[in-house]
Amino acid sequence: MGSTWRTRDMGDAEENQVKFALTGQVRVVQCCLDYEGTGDEDYALNCIVDGKKLGEVMRRSGVSDITSLFDDGSTDLFPCLEDLTRAIRDVASRCVPGDMFVFQYSGHGMQKMRASGRSDDFDTLLVLRARD
Fold this sequence. Notes:
This protein is an alpha/beta fold.
């Protein structure tokens, strides 16, 4: 999986090697935001289309536990802090030893300097939306 502090080339053969055999279920929370209707249409994305395509690939691969949060009103949960926290806790509560929890995010992100003040000390943040 990519690092939170830099983008990595996922084409690297060593990085793409499977290091263990999956013995349980794959459980997924996917959070996809297009940001339409936010008043800043210059930054609108096509993340929901990507999320739906990735969800279809997961289903074809045998994954059945997929919880989706899209900001277009098409899902029961909305990609706001409260619903995302609820979804992660709910899916994580179903995990047992041997399961794999996957969080897939498509949307804007940003970095914020930590309180340490060091120039290389940043947190990477997800840009969610508030429920209207």
